[in-house]
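dumping these here so i dont lose them again. two proteins, back to back, each one seq then structure tokens. dont judge the mess
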Amino acid sequence: MKAHLLFGFLGSGKTTLAKYLLDQVGTSVKTAIIVNEFGEVGVDGDILRGRSIDVVELNSGCLCCTLRGSLLMAIEELRDKAKVERVIVEATGIAQPSELLDSLAHASGSQQIEVGPLVTVVDCAKMTKLEDMLGDFYLEQIETADLLVANKIDMASPSELTAVTRRLRELNPKAELVFAERGRVPLDVVLGHSSSALVQELMAEWQHENSSAGSFIETHSHASRQCEHDHHHDHHHHDHHDHHHHHHDHQHGSAHSHEGGIAHSTLAHAADGSPLAHEVESFVVHCGSGATAQRWERFFQSLPQNVWRVKGFVQSDQSPTLIQYTMGQLEMTPASHASQDALVFIGSQMDRAFLEAEVAMVTR
């Protein structure tokens, strides 16, 4: 089985790219997608479900912390029971590539996985703002990519595109750079790449440390690719409490936990090396059905800046509607169905009670 990895910060367009890729997949290679959700409601899984493709939705938080076991079980099940030959893993927007690769490297048994390229989707209109806000955490997704998809070019000005292109070339001169509007990238461009030296390095490191294990993970890379990364992987300590709360400490400086139904993840470090103050959290707000499109638009226009991402399904003018909001930009798209009327809020230090009250006002 070949595994293709999609990265990109919240709202960059990973799911849109995944949808476009699935639309291009033929029947010659059976393909599955694993959608990882940060939050309690599987919105991305609902968007992708219903096509002639297997969808596995993992909805328990950050890939690097809570999905090591279930991600591998999902891959094993897809391979053994569904006879899947290719899997696309869409990582959560706060996942770091080295940690996901570390998870794949700990596969057990006789699993054979060819790890494909690291693909990172970048929001052209927001890259500068996100780099300033998130620092090294954001940059790792760019610096480790084999393929950079500069997405949403239709939302960026010519000067922004010039600046983004220059910055991406500075950060990762060896990656292929493609530009896209709404994630429209040809299938062979994304899936035709081989994996990087980073993949080889991490896999070789794990296999050396665990030479007695029966795992077999296969990697391919361009001979010309050279990566110099200093990777140190702490052991992950899992403390299981009621309601399956988790807390994990990583050597690279991020911490993740789930408390009271809210998922948390402290981002690693700012660009200057100082600890980053932002703690990512998410929660779900269930919605009534009495809102108009105009009310929803006013609500999203008034959201504070610490609400980074909102996604979900609502009733708008008595019709199911997909909501996609990212840092000031709102998309409302008619939906054929909605598994439940609910919105996932993702941000930092959000006032949950205030947002719940505002949603109730919209739908009263």
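---- next one ----
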Amino acid sequence: QRELQIFKDIRDSMDQISVILDIGEGNGILLIELVGFELKFEGVYFCSLCRTSRNVLQTEDLSNVEVKEVDFMSCSGELSSFDLCIDKGAFDTISLNPENTEESKACYVQALRGALKEEGFFVITSCSWTKDQLLQMFSQGERTVGDTPGMF
């Protein structure tokens, strides 16, 4: 599956991914796929606002996946030390809101920096921004491990 291609690209760079944050309102399917993707998990966290993810994860009997309902932009350090942060559209929604666009983007980047370990990985998919635009917004000297169409 195309969404997992980036994990194939960076898997060798990962010593151990044990704590993952899925930013947004997804249904938990990507995390279910990652659990079976030969990554070593101690705990996986799914930041969400929807009950669907809890139901899907419970159906799959994934007791190591914890669903927390947290406002990512206002969590003030509540989320920290993640090895991997994944965004499959939350940034698009936040950054395209006509109110406080620049402030919202800066707040998102700040929240991400607080959530992600210094040596952690950030994977984002976007339908609204080009790779170069995303790199400009998110990378400040960090390295890009690899990219696939629509992903880096």
